[in-house]
Design a protein that fits this description.
Elements lengths: L24 E5 L1 E2 L4 H9 L5 E4 L2 H6 L4 E2 L1 H9 L6 E5 L15 H8 L1 E2 L5 E2 L7 H5 L5 E3 L6 H14 L2 E5 L5 H8 L7 E5 L8 H16 L31 H7 L2 E6 L3 E4 L13 H17 L10 H20 L3 E8 L6 H5 L5 E7 L20 H5 L2
Parallel strand pairs: 1-5, 1-8, 8-9, 9-10, 10-11
Antiparallel strand pairs: 2-4, 3-5, 6-7, 11-12, 13-14
Helix pairs in contact: 3-8, 4-6
Length: 392
């Protein structure tokens, strides 16, 4: 028997959730350098087929060699922001065909990668090992200049596994070809871009990666890539007819086909919000990223609840933890609203006795204002006070 004071520490109530980081870029690229010290520096900084953490992009540019896609991509990203990145350098495997055009099977294979006999990931697949090796998970994924159809297909698969989002070129010499190319995909984790910016092949993808990371940091994942001025651009690789008040344009045709285009309107900017999803609920890039961010934040933030005694108090704590997060996101303007609740029909006594609890939550993401209608009418009613205005 205790003869004194016992102090207990009950751990009930809602817990604060830590938002998941969505602004980390996963970049797949090639790089080479002249023989000697530059090559040694490149190999040390970016060993082949290994995920490398980059926190100082300017320093990374200095070590990125002078051939391949890496240096140019890093420079275009740096024009937008100074992000945390995971870079995977893949081998250059040119077989005489153009890189990133579906005519270079060797380069596609080197870029796509896989798992070797030792169980190590290589090529773009090495992005999957980044979290275990580096402690960060890439969410904004691209392979500027290397994104053939085969590579883009693999990037989508990687993005799905990482709960990330991929950006890639809509390959084609014309608007019609780009629209046709879009039909190869039906994933919500992909945005296709057409045409390219003019400085190098893949520049639009590199700038999209940097711009997306900057928007995440400055505004949030609920704001789409579209209609944000970008830096470091001198022109477009193809002519695109665009009129803000007319949908019967090249830009309108591309947007109708779920392809984001590039326009010049008070600077250069991306124009389009759509993914390649075959599910209308996930037609907008920002909605997909909202769903991903909330899923990760809530799942990771509820790790404390796993293996707790399954009591009504535990269920209440879980519900209130989720609701507190949803209320906070709603106040920030990142959601329209959301609510978690316990549904008895989803939780039979047998399931509860077996240690299985189901909590539902609904949320309404913020859609982009993609179409604004202004009604303009001519009227004579403002002549009604004409005499008074004249002073008669």
């Amino acid at each position: 028997m205790l003869h004194g004071i016992q102090v207990n520490e009950p751990t009930t109530g809602a817990r604060a959730l830590t938002p998941s980081s969505t602004a980390v870029i996963g970049l797949v690229a090639t790089a080479g350098a002249a023989a000697g010290a530059p090559t040694a520096a490149l190999d040390a900084a970016f060993p082949l087929d290994k995920p490398v953490l980059v926190t100082d992009i300017r320093s990374a540019i200095a070590k990125a060699g002078d051939t391949g896609t890496l240096k140019a991509a890093l420079e275009s990203i740096a024009d937008q922001c100074s992000p945390v990145m995971v870079v995977v350098r893949v081998p250059v495997a040119i077989d005489g065909a153009d890189v990133g055009t579906d005519n270079n099977a060797e380069q596609d294979a080197a870029t796509v990668g896989g798992v070797d006999v030792s169980g190590s990931y290589f090529g773009a697949q090495a992005l999957l090992a980044a979290e275990a090796q580096l402690g960060v998970r890439p969410r904004i994924i691209g392979a500027p200049g290397l994104d053939s159809q085969a590579v883009t297909t693999e990037l989508v698969s990687i993005a799905q596994k990482l709960r990330g989002f991929a950006y890639a070129r809509a390959i084609g010499a014309t608007v019609a070809e780009a629209v046709t190319y879009r039909e190869n995909f039906g994933a919500r984790e992909l945005m296709l871009l057409y045409p390219d910016f003019s400085d190098f092949t893949g520049q639009a993808v590199a700038i999209a990666l940097g711009t997306r990371s900057r928007i995440d940091e400055q505004e949030g994942w609920h704001k789409s890539l579209s209609n944000v001025a970008v830096n470091g651009v001198t022109g477009l690789s193809k002519d695109v007819y665009f009129d803000l008040q007319d949908s019967s344009t090249d830009a309108g045709v591309l947007n109708d086909a779920d392809v984001t285009t590039l326009v010049r309107m008070r600077g250069f900017r991306f124009w389009g919000n759509r993914t390649t999803s075959d599910e209308p609920l996930f037609q907008f890039e920002c909605v997909v990223r909202t769903a991903q961010a909330i899923k990760d934040t809530i799942a990771n933030g509820l790790a404390w609840a796993v293996d707790k005694p399954l009591t009504p108090q535990t269920a209440r704590d879980i519900i209130e933890t989720i609701n507190a997060e949803l209320r906070g996101l709603t106040r920030q303007g990142r959601l329209i609203g959301g609510e978690a609740y316990f549904d008895p029909s989803e939780n039979s006594k047998e399931q509860l006795a077996a240690g299985k609890l189901t909590i539902d939550f609904d949320f309404t993401p913020v859609a982009p204002l993609e179409g604004l209608t202004i009604n303009q009418r001519i009227t004579d009613r403002f002549y009604g006070d004409f005499g008074a205005l004249v002073g008669v």
